[in-house]
Write a structure and sequence with these properties.
Elements: E1 20-24, H1 28-40, E2 44-48, H2 51-60, E3 65-69, H3 77-86, E4 94-99, H4 104-112, E5 117-120, H5 125-149, H6 160-177, E6 181-188, H7 191-198, H8 200-217, E7 223-228, E8 231-237, H9 241-257, E9 260-262, E10 265-267, E11 271-277, H10 289-305, E12 311-313
Parallel strand pairs: 1-2, 1-3, 3-4, 4-5, 11-12
Antiparallel strand pairs: 6-8, 6-11, 7-8, 9-10
């Protein structure tokens, strides 16, 4: 599963996303008039003149709503609905069909093709906006369900399921375009002692504080997932090994120099880091999620065994 990268923050967020809408209408005057009304209502509007152009844009873009005319030359609105649904897009696309068709049988055909709703032309503005508002609620609820399925409930980062799926895609993109990619495994030092001395509630507070510090230190396109227990993976696209070491060192210093505020008081907690970069592997070898994380884990093991509170880049 992939959450559309609009782009991912370090931790998951439940903030609503802005609705981006694709309007498909072959008649230029009607298209421009409807586009103006939709923009005035606050939607981010893109347009297409026919079904083929619309399908290309849907497959390339990240729209939340599709409004399409039914009767168009070439691929009509119903066929476009079927093609969009067959594409298995990563996020849900709400489809509103504009139609001059009157019979119940025709409407059933459109809904069976994959449309969520329909409105008869010419569309009444108040009715159109009300239906789009309802569609926006469905889009948001779907997004929330998807987000919950890939979110760690305790700390709000992505979970291991998301890590496995999305890191595989990051590796594929890195290989395809010849771009660097780094993965950092980090683990809180002596975390068991915190739980034993102060209790698991305090331990949970420390984990959340650690995640906040990671999130404040990484870029918008970077992201973090909980690997297990007090261990996290930070994924750094477009990042060389040298730059990944610098990023990890920034987080390490911030933790080592500033106590974490908990209900049990101010606690000094350090973290250790291991790093692996895709650019370090010979081109003849195939990197996988398992091999990349295994190499980063080697670095983490060395950091732990040489005194903790360290950053170590793994050798190939």
């Amino acid at each position: 599963m992939s959450i559309p990268a609009h782009k991912r923050p370090g931790t998951c967020t439940s903030d609503p996303v802005a609705l981006r809408l694709l309007l498909v209408e072959d008649e230029p005057v009607q298209r421009r008039a409807l586009e103006r009304r939709l923009r005035k209502a606050g939607f981010l509007v893109d347009t297409a003149q026919n079904g083929d152009e619309a399908l290309d844009k849907v497959l390339q873009g990240q729209y939340q709503i599709l409004i399409t005319d039914w009767d168009m030359p070439g691929m009509d609105g119903a066929a476009l609905c079927r093609r969009v649904r067959a594409a298995n897009l990563p996020g849900y696309l709400y489809i509103l069909l504009l139609t001059g068709h009157e019979s119940a049988g025709d409407i059933v055909v459109g809904l069976d093709a994959g449309a969520d709703d329909y409105i008869r032309k010419p569309a009444n503005e108040a009715e159109l906006l009300a239906r789009l508002k309802a569609g926006g609620r469905i889009v948001e609820l779907t997004r929330q369900v998807q987000l919950l399925s890939v979110t760690d409930p305790l700390v709000g980062t992505y979970n291991r399921r998301y890590l496995t799926d999305e890191l595989a895609l990051e590796i594929e993109r890195s290989r395809r375009y010849g771009r660097p990619l780094a993965a950092v495994i980090t683990d809180l030092d002596l975390f068991k002692g915190i739980n034993d001395e102060h209790g698991h509630q305090t331990g949970d507070e420390v984990l959340r504080c650690f995640v906040e510090r990671i999130g404040a230190s990484i870029r918008e396109n970077d992201w973090v997932a909980r690997y297990g227990g007090e261990e996290f993976v930070i994924v750094l696209p477009e990042t060389s090994l040298v730059d990944a070491v610098s990023a990890a060192e920034k987080i390490r210093l911030q933790c080592a120099s500033t106590p974490m505020v908990t209900s049990a008081g101010h606690l000094m907690v350090t973290a250790s880091f291991g790093i692996a970069a895709l650019e370090c592997l010979p081109a003849t070898e195939l990197e996988t999620v398992a091999t990349l994380l295994r190499r980063a884990d080697v670095g983490l093991y060395r950091s732990k065994n040489t005194g903790r509170n360290r950053v170590t880049a793994a050798d190939v």
